[in-house]
């Protein structure tokens, strides 16, 4: 498992009976997590000192209950700053487990930028981030020295990502912010002849595009991986696919990415669960899976 264990402003303190107890900076939240099927004693005192609690409804969805929680606050990861706010369906605007992938892409980009500066200063590292949400991966790539194209169907999420960029001192970084349907954008980029050195995609299990386009990950993710592979440059560096869908296990990600990428581009594919350490138990909370192609 790839573990996001370099956080200082975030931790999973405990988890039990369908919920996880988290520290986000100075605030304690309790949120539902379907992976937490064990029922262990809630002995940690933070369970009784929470600032916010998302209660899931038996009918679907749910609602927040707040105890002295600001409408918005910030946390940091390395040199990046993220603005947080509790909003619909338990989210805060950040998936902390993805930090393990931010570190991975950052290290690849930094090595490539250093190499380019020594021999090919005219070749920037170009990254495409699809389903880019509030910009965690976008900011990590930009901070490492890449030019990033950030694409998400939600105008609100793109605006939030821009705010995170400003908070991180990256307002002037070479980032293109686009509100668009990811599949249609990729198709247009292919027609334009554009290429990228790195591609990241974090597709939802189910979603709708700006014009009502329906996305179902089981039906659409492999065709999109095949399509996006056409945008890889001759000297491509990486391709990252994230999944929070139960059926898309690491072995499935490996098979799809190997099939779509290796025959033409060579390289290697690895996939694994990603997770977060749990402070009280010393165990690991699984948080989805990621597949990585690299040269």
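^ structure tokens above, recovered residues below v
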């Amino acid at each position: 498992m790839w573990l996001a264990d370099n956080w200082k402003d975030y931790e999973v303190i405990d988890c039990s009976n369908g919920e996880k107890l988290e520290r986000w900076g100075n605030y304690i939240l309790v949120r539902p997590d379907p992976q937490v099927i064990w029922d262990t004693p809630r002995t940690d005192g933070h369970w009784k000192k929470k600032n916010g609690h998302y209660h899931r409804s038996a009918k679907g969805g749910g609602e927040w209950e707040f105890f002295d929680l600001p409408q918005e606050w910030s946390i940091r990861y390395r040199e990046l700053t993220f603005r947080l706010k509790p909003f619909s369906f338990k989210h805060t605007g950040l998936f902390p487990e993805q930090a393990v992938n931010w570190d991975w892409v950052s290290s690849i980009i930094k090595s490539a930028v250093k190499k380019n500066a020594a021999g090919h200063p005219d070749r920037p590292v170009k990254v495409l981030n699809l389903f880019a949400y509030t910009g965690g991966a976008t900011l990590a790539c930009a901070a490492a020295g890449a030019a990033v194209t950030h694409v998400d169907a939600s105008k609100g999420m793109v605006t939030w990502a821009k705010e995170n960029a400003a908070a991180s001192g990256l307002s002037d970084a070479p980032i293109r912010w686009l509100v668009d349907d990811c599949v249609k954008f990729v198709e247009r980029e292919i027609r334009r002849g554009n290429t990228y050195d790195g591609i990241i995609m974090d597709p939802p299990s189910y979603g709708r595009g700006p014009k009502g386009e329906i996305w179902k990950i089981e039906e659409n993710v492999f065709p999109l991986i095949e399509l996006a592979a056409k945008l890889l440059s001759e000297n491509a560096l990486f391709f990252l696919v994230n999944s929070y869908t139960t059926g898309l296990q690491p072995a499935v990600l490996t098979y799809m990415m190997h099939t779509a990428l290796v025959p033409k581009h060579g390289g290697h594919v690895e996939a694994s669960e990603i997770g977060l350490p749990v402070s009280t138990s010393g165990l690991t909370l699984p948080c989805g899976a990621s597949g990585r192609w690299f040269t």
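DSSP finds six helices and 17 strands in the chain.
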